[in-house]
Amino acid sequence: MPKTTIWLWFDHQGEEAAEFYTSLFPNSRVTDISRYGDAGPGESGSVMTVAFELDGAPFVALNGGPAHASFTEAISVQIDCADQTEVDHYWDAFADGGEESACGWIKDRFGLSWQVVPRALPELLGSPDPKVAERVMAAMMTMQKIEVADLEAAARS
Question: Where do the domains of the chain lie, and which CATH numbers do they carry?
Answer without folding.
Answer: 1-69 (3.30.720.100), 71-157 (3.10.180.10)
